Amino acid sequence: MTLFEKIIARQIPANIVAETSEWLAFHDIQPQAPVHVLVVPKKLIPRVGEAGLDDAAVLGALLLGAKEVARLTGILETGFRVVINHGADAGETVPHLHVHVLGGRPLGWPPG
Ligand code: 5GP
Question: pTM here?
Fold first, then answer.
């Protein structure tokens, strides 16, 4: 099982923000902004580059999940960023697709 499958199965604790039949959203253990939440599909897709056409509904649900997280955490109006890291150069560390939702402060662009 991946780390995130264990969190989804409640084998590892997490600070959960929201959940649907398709995804679980919980606070990142090492937040990079005042709000830093991960939206994780319950279907194991290792990374976005391995998603297929049959994953289209899940991918759409993740973005709508990011919007819902932004609403629940109060950053929908002030602004937020959605990030997916794929592979080594992007700094991916957990091989289970996840969307980072970051906000609560001005975010620099471009990212370093
Ligand atoms: P990645 O670098 O793969 O895009 O993002 C993985 C994220 O998972 C990192 O931001 C990291 O802080 C977070 N993370 C790693 N282990 C845990 C954990 O056990 N619990 C939670 N809530 N987040 C974790």
Answer: 0.98
